[in-house]
Amino acid sequence: MANGSYSDPPAQVHEAHEVDTFHVPQAFHDKHPTGTHIKDINEYKKLYDESIRSPDTFWARMARELLTFDKDFQTTHHGSFENGDNAWFVEGRLNASYNCVDRHALKNPDKVAIIYEADEPNEGRQITYGELMREVSRVAWTLKERGVKKGDTVGIYLPMIPEAVIAFLACSRIGAVHSVVFAGFSSDSLRDRVLDASSKVVITSDEGKRGGKVIGTKKIVDEAMKQCPDVHTVLVYKRTGAEVPWTEGRDIWWHEEVEKYPNYLAPEPVSSEDPLFLLYTSGSTGKPKGVMHTTAGYLLGAAMTGKYVFDIHDDDRYFCGGDVGWITGHTYVVYAPLLLGCATVVFESTPAYPNFSRYWDVIDKYDVTQFYVAPTALRLLKRAGDEHIHHKMHSLRILGSVGEPIAAEVWKWYFESVGKEEAHICDTYWQTETGSNVITPLGGITPTKPGSASLPFFGIEPAIIDPVSGEEILGNDVEGVLAFKQPWPSMARTVWGAHKRYMDTYLNVYKGYYFTGDGAGRDHDGYYWIRGRVDDVVNVSGHRLSTAEIEAALLEHSSVAEAAVVGIADELTGQAVNAFVALKEGNETTDQIRKDLTMQVRKSIGPFAAPKAVFVVEDLPKTRSGKIMRRILRKILSGEEDSLGDTSTVSTEPLTIPGQTILTISSCRTLALWTRLLRLFTPPASKRHTIDDNDMGAKFLMNYEGLDGRDSLSVQQAIFLFSFPLSFPLFVQF
Predict the structure, then answer these.
(1) CA–CA distances in Å: residue 648 to residues 214, 624, 639
(2) Whole-angstrom Cα distance, residue 179 to residue 99?
(3) CA atoms lying within 13 Å on the CB side of residue 628
(4) What mean pLDDT, rounded, does the chain reach?
(5) Going edge to edge, which strands form the sheet with 201-205?
(6) What is the pLDDT of residue 265?
(7) Cβ(629)–Cβ(621) under 8 Å?
(8) 710 and 696 in contact (C-beta within 8 Å)?
(9) pLDDT exceeds 50 at position 1
């Protein structure tokens, strides 16, 4: 979509010349009940041009069309990136719960709102919009009677059950701000988020279930609450009926409380710019950021992308496999489908339980029309084999991909084996901070290229920036870092309690632009190809993890002097956490230390952050000023040890620090040699794994189980390692 010229020969986006362009299958149109919301790609271009040239007119029309305001807004937008004061639909008032529930319940109370697919295939239930309004009202009454008022934050630590959705909407019904913590995070991570958000009420369950396993959610909450003295209420939903510890006066049962209150509580209108929720995301500095989204702008982004990207219509049954603990679950399990009045599937289990047909069973069972999932799950299921796909799945119109770029071969498998060449694939790019899809095909409209996120959504004006000069690179067939040139309604407004951090992270990097933190290319057709993070964040299965946060967890161990964490490409999870640690003087490398280090990360952050591989080394590569050069570690592990780049700043003299030594460039070369030799002796992944329910990919996707099932050292590696002195380095994979 970009125009302009570029004086130097551009770096071509090679993948664009290596893949075919796929047009919308005719079968998509043949099975469509009514037709897409816009006619064709030309209408997209016309609307897109309007959204860039006349954004106020465009967004005002869309807001009034898709949202119900209690009081109409007077000003569509004011503010700027430079000042960090963007506000949308100013003076307007509305309620998120009303927009998601009441306006549909009042028209058709018997229409299905939530399809709950429980962990066990034969369990579960469906909830209508009328029932949802009643349950949301009763929980809202409960919160109100416990002292929660407009603007207060409520912590939510729940598994993937309908009550998680109800809790979201109960908070928004009374103007409270929900702060959801993924129910795979550790007690320490939960504690930090509850404290940062100043939550005084936490909602959880006695236990959770996932992949046939039981998760002690209440136990984790109890541990976290030991250091959260301001929390006066823990509302507990009875999921399994297990006996759990109880703190009288603080802990209350969900089922007992809701019975005390009426079936209806009028929703409280809030200002368009009042906070709707906080969601904590990893940052390069280590401390999680409480990203704050406001009400009207976020809701419009969710509704618009649901309508135009996923082509949602009234009678659709929408299945997003994301967890509500992440932004994907917020926007595309809860808000987008409910705003548009369709049925949303709440999926408690994993794609591998009880077998690798689980997703496909659900799609056929409920005649799912849109399916949205991360490439990690698709890689796992592709590797499991097509013998698990013996389903019709003819109801599918849209197949979505989220969280990370999808490889071309996985894209084609998704299109052919899952979609039967009848569904349109939408490979979406967005972030927690963007609120909703920002670069994406439109379902049933946009021609697609495997591996490309395609074209910008309405109101999104991408720029490819030269990271050295900070100048925009015009034209096509260019590479750089991705930024956006103008505000859009669903963008986050701030970091909770840290607006300077928000400005420095997103808006001050390149003045006048929103900085995504991702590299990208724009090909000869103007299609965008996402390259991944350019900061110290690892993207594991679409979940952003801070390397600094993982390093801090490792350093909490008494034996560790230094730690460095890098993300390396992984065929299953997209990226994998790899850790380097140098032990303090007097500590020996033992199996117990290695196990303790892994448990340290699991306890501090959560099982999903556990390193895939740990290298115990004598020292780490540093600049003369003492800064760890993670770039060198990343290149070595990626097999690029012959192209370490500029190493002139690496210390060549050993610099003694208590308990450690600065790694010299010769040590880097030694590490590279060892890594290369180990690679030669490592069997291919296809020969090291067999697909079963204990497979590491299946376990990772369970989130709660981490990577306990990963391979140990192969026999070849063990023989090789223990045939040589192990002064530097010792490679450990467990």
Answers:
(1) 52, 9, 21
(2) 20
(3) 21
(4) 85
(5) 251-253, 233-237, 201-205, 153-157, 177-180, 275-281, 289-294, 494-495
(6) 99
(7) yes
(8) yes
(9) no
